[in-house]
Amino acid sequence: MGSREEIVAAAAKVMREQGYAHATTKVIARTAGYSEAMLYKHFRDKTDLFLSVLSDELPALGATLAELTADPGRAPLRDNLVRVARLGLAFYADSFPIAISMFSSRELLRSHRDRVGGAGPRIPLKGVEDYLRAEVALGRLKADTDVEAVAALLLGACFQQAFLTTFEEREPADIAERLADTLLAAL
Predict the structure, then answer these.
(1) Is residue 77 part of a domain?
(2) Are residues 73 and 142 in the same domain?
(3) Residue 151 domain boundaries
(4) 52 in any annotated domain
(5) CATH number for the domain including 75?
(6) How does pLDDT run along the chain (187 residues), one tens digit per residue?
(7) How far is CA 53 from CA 15, 116, 123, 159, 170, in A?
(8) Are 65 and 130 in contact, with CB atoms under 8 Å apart?
(9) Into how many domains does the chain fold?
């Protein structure tokens, strides 16, 4: 593992323990065993590092959604929905403790939103919508399926579970199959 990967892993650890707002680049660098100068050799700032944590350290929700959108028929619809739900649950459970501290300050939230172009939290939602549109095109979902509402219901449930998991300091419940089955029954 190289210095960049070690810094991202340390950032994930520190951000999970202290939240984004309180995780300083100095503490992250020290936790990784490097100087702050080495951190800045790889990352512009803490937001750049946070985005790397989201893409490198958390469950690969985005990559899986891109794969499913490109070839949705590879597996049964239910299996795909269970997979999306499991990854959504894991992604939000892992990212919630890190991301929630951004809401502690309007200035911090505004700065982060400006940096990520405002799209940050919408990216997984759009990925699920795109995947569901691919399922509609295959005919495995009805043509009139409201993919935006289905995506919001699925990821909203995953997000709610992450909130409860974080609040109650417990392991996330594996309700992926129940979420998929409930959605399919309604569709």
Answers:
(1) yes
(2) yes
(3) 58-186
(4) no
(5) 1.10.357
(6) 689 999 999 998 998 888 887 889 999 999 999 999 999 999 988 888 887 887 776 667 888 999 999 999 999 999 999 999 999 998 888 888 777 777 777 877 787 788 777 667 888 899 999 999 999 999 999 999 999 999 999 999 999 998 898 889 888 788 999 999 999 999 8
(7) 9, 14, 15, 18, 22
(8) yes
(9) 2
